[in-house]
Specification:
Elements: E1 16-22, E2 25-32, E3 37-41, H1 52-60, E4 64-68, H2 87-100, E5 106-111, H3 113-124, E6 129-135, H4 157-165, E7 170-171, H5 172-176, H6 181-188, H7 190-200, H8 221-231, E8 233-234, H9 257-270, H10 273-280, H11 282-288, E9 301-306, H12 310-314, H13 316-320, H14 322-325, E10 333-335, H15 342-345, H16 347-359
Parallel strand pairs: 3-4, 3-5, 5-6, 6-9, 9-10
Antiparallel strand pairs: 1-2, 2-4, 7-8
């Protein structure tokens, strides 16, 4: 697994690294291009680097693209209190970045946890975020994760997660918030954990034979919950890595050793505590977003998911009902043969979707 990258983001002369003061913290940003501002928010366990392909494409198309290390990641500040990672602070970080860049508005694009932040930012601050794109995770309202049976956060997230997990199992996010457990597993071998996660939740990992003929878009919420119980829930005492797909001898085409080395170096330096704190705040976020329940997402909005992305699959109901809560929603785009890491797995297809959306604003 020693594939060499053909595109070194770190050596791209277009990329200008900056340190911004936003919302009382230090935010590391990487910028490319000139034009209307597009702010890129990454997910777990990633960094600004996850957007390297999009930075170049957006800059080429005449946009000012800025990818940030989210709070708790990379070279951005890492507050120690769990409540410092609540959704209102994450949104305020993004607002602060826009203003620190000398702008008053931006289009915000998020992936994974960054999607939850992007949706919430556009929902609660449409004065700053004039349009939004969520990648992998559909708009989930108060609940953020768009879970089966709870697409827009009608119920407290932890209640729904425990129902999905059922007796004797932990929903993976509950595992992430078990004191010290996930931290110990990650730190025991960051390279193996990160490589396993990137591969296991991609479309490069082989599907179980019984899943190959299933049309997941037609499954009921109960059937989706049963699938999730097997895919992302685990008995107490079992590590998440234990359930990951065994790595092949060679890395998939979309992932290089350089990519892995970059992520590993970041997390070995910063640790996982900050990123895991996002999961601790899900119920708190549900409470903080209560005043917005029933309020539409007012700005132009697009969802882009992967046909083999488990987060897109579990958000099926939220994706189908998106026009009910977002009057300016565009038709969702689901990219075939793509897993959870769309910015990496299918950069050309994602870039095309982003540029077409932006051109139509």
């Amino acid at each position: 697994m020693s594939k060499t990258s053909t595109f070194s983001a770190l050596d791209d002369e277009r990329f200008k690294q900056r340190t911004l003061s936003a919302n009382g913290i230090r935010v590391h940003a990487v910028e490319a291009g000139q034009g209307p501002l597009v702010l890129l928010a990454h997910g777990f366990p990633e960094s600004w680097y996850s957007w390297r392909h999009q930075l170049r494409a957006l800059a080429d198309a005449g946009y000012r693209a800025v990818a940030i290390d989210m709070r708790g990641y990379g070279r951005t500040s890492k507050p120690t209190a769990v409540h410092d990672y609540r959704i209102t602070e994450l949104v305020a970080d993004c607002v602060g970045v826009v203003h620190a860049l000398g702008e008053s508005q931006a289009v915000i694009v998020g992936h994974d946890w960054g999607s939850a932040v992007a949706w919430s930012a556009a929902w609660t601050r449409p004065d700053v975020f004039r349009a939004v794109v969520g990648v992998s995770v559909p708009f989930g309202g108060r609940g953020q994760m768009a879970l089966p049976g709870n697409p827009f956060g009608e119920r407290r997230p932890s209640e729904v997660e425990r129902e999905i997990a059922g007796p004797g199992r932990l929903w993976y996010q509950e595992y992430f918030t078990s004191p010290g457990v996930a931290d110990r597993e990650f730190h025991s071998d960051p390279a193996a954990w990160l490589t396993g996660a990137l591969y296991s939740f991609s479309a490069s990992a082989p599907q179980p034979p019984e899943a190959a003929a299933v049309d997941f878009t037609q499954l009921s919420d109960q059937a989706l919950a049963a699938m999730l119980r097997e895919a992302v829930c685990m008995p107490p005492g079992v590590g998440m890595r234990d359930g990951m797909t065994p790595m092949p001898d060679d890395l998939p085409d979309w992932l290089t050793q350089e990519d892995i080395d970059f992520y590993v170096a970041e997390f070995e330096r910063t640790g996982f505590t900050g990123p895991l704190n996002y999961y601790h705040c899900l119920d708190l976020n549900w409470e903080l977003l209560a005043p917005y329940e029933g309020r539409p997402l007012e700005v132009p909005a697009l969802f882009v998911g992967g046909g083999r992305d488990i987060a897109t699959l579990w958000g099926r109901t939220a994706m189908q009902r998106f026009p009910e809560v977002a009057p300016q929603a565009r038709e969702p785009i689901v990219i075939a043969d793509a897993g959870h890491w769309l910015p990496d797995e299918k950069p050309q297809e994602l870039n095309k979707a982003l540029l077409e959306f932006l051109a139509g604003l």
